[in-house]
Amino acid sequence: VYKRLIMAFACQRDSYAKELVTSVKSCQPAKLDGKRDGFEVVLEDTVLFAEGGGQPDDRGTIDGVAVERVIRRGGEAVHFTAEPLEVGKTVKLEVDWKRRFDHMQQHTGQHLVTAIADTKYGYKTSSWCLGPQKSFIELNCSKMSQQEVDDLEISVNEAIRAQTPVTTHVLQVGSPELEEVRSRGLPDDHVGPVRVIEIHGIDSNMCCGTHLSNLSHLQSIKLLHTENKRGHVQLFYVAGQRVLEYLNRSVGIERNLSKLLSCGPEDHVECVERLQKAQKTSAKATRTHLREIAQLLVFQHLHTESRDPVACIHRDDGDIEFMNIVANELTPQGIVCLVTIGPEKGTGQFLLAGPEDLVFSLGPKVAKVLDGKGGGRKGRYQGKVNSLCGKAQAESLIREAVAPKT
Question: How many CB atoms lie within 10 A of CB 397?
């Protein structure tokens, strides 16, 4: 009877169980992810955790057949497979232990951080998310200082070093002990007894997830940073093996930066600040040069012996200001201008300026020739294009339209 208690599958009775021999109760055709053909398999018991309590579902195999999803439907765990399994057959389940143990570390870590944040600061947890690389706990406070984060991290890791036991209890609904348990309420479809996870001397919480048996198995927790969302604080963290993985990634980035910047890690920030300052100075000088070049091109066009009524000007490194300077200077002189910026064989921008009726008619045609889209009003039509290879064809369109007027 105990094996069939709601929320008490083999994976919940023993979170460290990596395999299980059981039998197939049912196997029905189904759509995997609502698209691919597959099967819904229900077993007498399971060592694969069905998603719940914020914890993602397990992966694993049933007699070598991959289990692609596990969900809870009432009192049963439904396994999604691409191949059918014979009803009544005795089968062996094996769990993807790396994934499972990672989820155990993150989930138990969440319980620990949640409990101590509540005890130390009165910050209640409203939700949490177990992400693929880092997770976050949403606290019902509007801000959290860096000092609070640092102190919380110290307290959390002290509890880990103390080798605090973690115990699973199964209590009946209405039991007096449940009144002392932290909870956000039971699911609407819950029936039967209630599973409680106790971190001795720290926390008791209703939970269906798989958990560590001792905080020492967490190894450590690193609180990364906070973000403010919807008036709450999201506290990001990594626990267990993810701390080492995060450190390895950080060390790799640090080494690459040291090579690129030709300095040690302790000088990275100062070096980047110098580069940013130099880049801003360079960008300012570039903008000044572009303005001067735009004015020079305008001057050259206006001071030729036979002034061309059409000006088609391109600049790879131009910007919107460059286009506007050219248009502002030439159009008052009765010149129709097409200004383009960007690489010759890549995406870019264009600006067509001139008499309003002419631009209104030509604008969409020029955009089409340049494989782009645009819009405009009052004698201007501009937009983004996917290719500037059609500049010559666009110029021909403009000259054909202007020719009768010259």
Answer: 17
State pLDDT tens for residues 76-135.
Answer: 999 999 999 999 999 999 999 999 999 999 999 999 999 999 999 999 999 999 999 999
Could you tell me the two tokens for 317? 């490194």
> How far, in Å, CA of 47 to CA of 18, rounded?
7
- pLDDT digit string, tens, across residues 259-281: 999 999 999 999 999 999 999 99
Complete edge-to-edge strand list for the sheet that includes strand 194-199: 166-171, 194-199, 203-206
Question: In angstroms, rounded to a whole number, what is the distance separating the alpha carbons of residues 58 and 66?
Answer: 11
Indicate the length of the chain as a whole number.
406
Q: What angle do CA 84, 88, 91 make, to 5 degrees?
A: 70
Read off the amino acid at residue 199: I
Our measurement of the distance from residue 3's CA atom to the centroid of its chain's CA atoms, rounded to an integer in Å, reads 39
**In which region does residue 63 sit, left (phi positive, over 0), alpha (psi from -120 to 50) or beta (all else)?**
left
Residue 375: C-alpha distances to residues 365, 379, 380 (Å): 11, 11, 8
CA torsion sign, 11 to 13 to 19 to 24? negative
Task: Count Cα atoms within 13 angstroms, Cβ side, for 137.
Answer: 28
For 174, counting Cβ atoms within 10 Å of its Cβ (0-12 exposed, 13-18 middle, 19+ buried), the class is exposed
Q: Return all residues near 173 (Cβ < 8 A) that are at least 6 apart.
A: 186, 192, 193, 194
* Strands across the sheet containing 232-239: 125-129, 135-139, 232-239, 221-229
Q: How many CB atoms sit inside 10 A of residue 171's CB?
A: 16
Q: Are 221 and 113 in contact (CB under 8 A)?
A: yes
Signed CA dihedral, 276, 236, 160, 216: sign only? negative
Tokens of 293: 């070049």
CB 109 within 8 A of CB 218: yes
